[in-house]
Design brief:
- This protein has 631 residues and is an alpha/beta fold.
- It has a domain of 125 residues: GMP Synthetase, Chain A, domain 3.
- Helix content is 31%, strand content 22%.
- It has 21 helices and 34 strands.
- Strand 33, helix 18 and strand 34 form a beta-alpha-beta unit.
- Helix 2 crosses helix 4 and helix 8 runs parallel beside helix 9.
- The protein is globular.
């Protein structure tokens, strides 16, 4: 835990921040003076009715009820009763002629501009196509698409008529896509013949045929190139209830079928306006680029740039081919003000010796967003030294569950290396021990004690809500337990230690796996690592560390000793691994999460076929190798 920030907002940063403008708005309407972000956050969680009403009025979203939260029970909170709206209305309101809505970069190609007029015209045309196919409010339209403008257009058209959107990227196999989209009994499939990644075109014709056969409810398949037409008719929307489903996102699905998580129009709208504008400080003069895929919630999150009139960037190629610094190059080409990526990408650039600030013009870049896993302090400092001292590192943590973040950056709060700056406004975040008592400066469970509007409307095919309650509310009834381990520091920042269900518990001393990875993966010989703690039948506790070596490296005794020394000195002498094993790779979910819990269960004797659904894994063949390592 560090005591010195690596980035501190200037007076100009604070004065010009959107959250400062919102604070002044709150003071004018309530008389409440909030001298700093912490005070504003406390009010936003103490008085959620006042906060969300103020946010609604700040963004001028129309008429609202006097009482915006009629039931604060979790699950089942009731927000903005009687309100009808449509997410797409806010996109239409921000249309403009002086800047593009989307910049699309095909791998190796030049940026292609999609104007706001073209975006709305093509959306209007495709919405009419859907109506002609008999699609109406509540029907499901699904995408099997790379990150291209047509994916955005298909979503907006679907949402505009009150239908429900869901999508998978084309890196998913047909089976993995069917495991998700097949649950929804969709009426229309939107797809394209393939995508280019790493210099190679990936033909998806066979997968599309398999999807069509596996989705018997389809009325039509629309190929993205056929969506090129535009309509001169104004894009109109269908008003829907605040909680009417907007989209269905899916859990990782490592065991059984993935859970379909339903989010509503209104909840997503107000949460994303808050997260993008007030937390990320994104507005109409920004170019917002997050490297993502339609399979991942960050694709949905980046769409929120359109809600505030910014330009979003779609890129469907590799982030590190033919060079490891492709994202920095793209950011420079499009003059991105906000770039989002992952800790793994940053570490890869560091190990490759990249110096983006020298090799690319990043003068427009203001913020680097990070999510997917914990960002080590060393990587955070690498961004400062190699991207720019003026660049704020906004590490965020949240999830598909709320399609947003609980914790992250804010333009008026310093950044400490390896720490997330502050809880988001309106998120009553706390850290609890196992008995449900708050803890500070020590590890606890991440909990949210009051509802957020973007918490799920429910799960798909969960009529009595039992699966939903079991997912978040079993450990602490009435309180959202997210499953992450965190430490809340004295200066209000948050350290994320990894999933609490993959805890390393050696001699009663608990440790998050993220702390091990942050230390070990900095070593030049280690490309990636996976650690698990196995409770064996004889009562022993075995803690192996699997390491994927960098090209040309060997797991010699010297390297093993260096790994153990690093863990002992930088993490904990009690969490030095019992065994270090060279592995051909680390299996991940399709959204990049290491499969710690399934691998742990496998080593504890569970049937491999029941531990993890192979189609949910990025490299299923790796599972077979791990099976051979059981002792």
């Amino acid at each position: 835990m560090t005591t010195t920030p690596q980035w501190t907002p200037t007076e100009a940063d604070v004065a010009g921040a959107r959250v400062t403008d919102f604070t002044q708005f709150v003071q004018r309407r309530t008389g409440r003076n909030h001298p700093d972000y912490e005070s504003l956050w406390q009010w936003s969680t103490d008085e959620p009715d006042e906060f969300w009403a103020a946010l609604w009025d700040y963004f001028d979203l129309g008429d609202r009820p006097e009482k915006v939260l009629t039931s604060a029970e979790m699950p089942g909170a009731q927000w903005f009763p009687g309100v009808q709206l449509n997410y797409v209305d806010q996109v239409i309101r921000n249309a403009r002629s002086d800047r593009p809505a989307i910049l699309y970069l095909p791998e190796g190609g030049d940026p292609v501009e999609v104007s706001w007029a073209e975006l709305l015209g093509r959306t209007s045309a495709f919405a009419q196509t859907l109506r002609d196919l008999g699609v109406s409010a509540g029907d499901r339209v699904v995408g099997y698409l790379p990150n291209i403008p047509e994916a955005v257009i298909a979503f907006l058209a679907t949402a505009s008529i009150g239908a429900i959107w869901s999508a998978c990227g084309q890196d998913y196999s047909a089976k993995a896509a069917l495991d998700r989209l097949g649950q929804l009994e969709p009426t229309v499939l939107v797809t394209t013949d393939g995508y280019t990644y790493g210099g190679k075109f990936h033909d998806k014709a066979a997968e599309i045929t398999a999807l069509q056969k596996g989705l018997p409810t389809l009325r039509a398949t629309v190929m993205a190139p056929d969506m090129a037409g535009s309509s001169s008719k104004e894009l109109t929307t269908t008003p829907v209830d605040f909680a009417h489903p907007l989209w269905i996102l899916f859990s990782s699905g490592t065991t059984g079928l993935p859970k379909g998580i339903i989010h509503g129009h209104g909840g997503v709208l107000v949460e994303h306006l808050k997260a993008v504008s007030l937390q990320s400080d994104i507005g109409p003069n920004d170019i917002f680029f997050w490297y993502t895929s339609p399979s991942w919630m960050m694709w949905n999150f980046q769409l929120a740039g359109l809600l505030v009139g910014s330009t979003i960037v779609c890129y469907d190629g590799s982030p590190n081919a033919p060079r490891p610094d492709v994202l920095w190059e793209i950011a420079a080409r499009v003059k991105a003000t906000v770039l989002g990526t992952s800790p793994g990408y940053v570490l890869g650039c560091a190990k490759a010796g990249a110096v983006p600030r020298k090799e690319h013009d990043l003068s427009a870049l203001r913020t680097v967003g990070i999510t997917g896993s914990s960002l080590p302090p060393s990587s955070s400092l690498w961004l400062r030294d190699n991207v720019g001292e003026h660049v704020q590192v906004s590490s965020i943590s949240g999830g598909t569950d709320v399609v947003s973040a609980f914790i992250g950056g804010v333009r008026t709060v310093p950044v400490w290396p390896g720490e997330l700056s502050a809880p988001y406004l309106g998120c009553a975040l706390d850290s609890w021990d196992e008995s449900g008592k708050p803890v500070r400066n020590e590890v606890g469970e991440l909990v949210v004690t009051k509802p957020m509007p973007s918490m799920p409307v429910g799960f798909w095919n969960d009529p009595d809500g039992s699966r939903y309650r079991a997912a978040y509310f079993e450990m602490f009834p009435g309180v959202w337990r997210h499953g992450d381990w965190i430490t809340i520091t004295d200066h209000g920042s948050v350290i994320v230690h990894g999933r609490s269900d993959s805890t390393l518990n050696r001699h009663g001393i608990r440790m998050g796996s993220a702390d091990i990875y942050q230390a070990v993966e900095r070593l030049p010989e280690v490309a990636e690592a996976l650690i698990i703690g196995v409770d064996e039948q004889d009562g022993e506790y075995w803690m192996p560390l699997f390491v994927v070596l960098t090209e040309g490296a060997e797991l010699t005794d010297e390297v093993r000793d260096r790994i153990k020394k690093t863990v002992r000195e930088e993490v904990s002498p009690r969490h030095v691994p019992d065994e270090i094993i060279a592995a051909p790779g680390v299996p991940h979910t399709r959204t990049g999460k290491k499969l710690e819990v399934p691998i742990k269960k496998l080593f504890q004797g569970a049937d491999a076929a029941k531990v993890v659904e192979r189609s949910a894994v990025d490299d299923p063949d790796l599972l077979d190798w791990y099976v051979t390592q059981k002792r």
